[in-house]
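User: I'm new to structure prediction. If I give you an amino acid sequence, what do you actually give back? Let's try with this one:
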Amino acid sequence: MERHDLPDLVAFLTVAEERSFTRAAAKLGTSQSSVSHTIRRLESRLGVRLLMRSTRSVSPTVAGEELIATLKPALADIDAKLGMLGELRDKPAGTIRISTSRHAAQRVLVPVLTALLAKFPDIHVELSTDGTLVDIVADRFDAGVRLGEQVAKDMIAVPISPDLRLAVVGSPSYFDRHDRPAHPDDLTTHRCINLRMPTHGAIYNWEFSQAGRELQVRVDGQVTVNDSIVAVDAAIGGMGLACLMEDLVAPAVADGRLVRVLEEWCEPFAGYHLYYPSRRQPSQAFSLVLEALRYRP
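Assistant: Good question. You get back a string of structure tokens that encode the predicted 3D arrangement of the chain. For your 297 residues, that looks like this:
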């Protein structure tokens, strides 16, 4: 491999991931024409077309997909090795990339990391909060955050929060017009605020449990959102019932803007875990982040 191959390969992978020369150029800190020239030069050197271009989209060819499959783990390994070189410094240093949800970032990660990063100014943390269940190895994240039940078995998982609970809530004005549900099955007769999950785009089925009995209810309503904060506002506005994380609605329940129902059907479940590949050799910076986040009852 020639010296200029590596940056060209990084440019190709960025375009393939972003599906756009414009977004890739912004991410790489260069111009669109420069990125386009780099890709043409790489394709010419390899003698194969890597990207299909149209006026609306960019997508990898078969050869491009094969190159992506090789590049992602190789670059992830390079990142890990570079992180290990930081161990030779007197102070912990490096960038830790974490894929997480916005709720976990707000409630767990940011409060803990604020103190840690103030103490170690050479450690940097990048939080990606789109909430999708990404492949952290392929997408070159150092770690991910998921609920305990969602972590793959081949990952090392460390609890970073206590158990969590869901809460079903509605506004006082809503309950002035509707009876309170006594059982989860009663929700089928109520207007509910649906939540579209970022992980797979499906509508969330409300989940309940009581004394070992588990129940899922598919609810209906006039409003569907893909953001829990918007769902809280919609419930406060009287648009229907919402099923959300308990801590998100607690302030509104406390001051009377929301009323909680079916509490006996909302039992605790495994909270957030930070997970990473078992074959990973943690850097000093990663170990510090991990230990700071580790939940200790």
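You can read the tokens as a compact description of the fold. Here is one thing that stands out. The radius of gyration is 23 Å.
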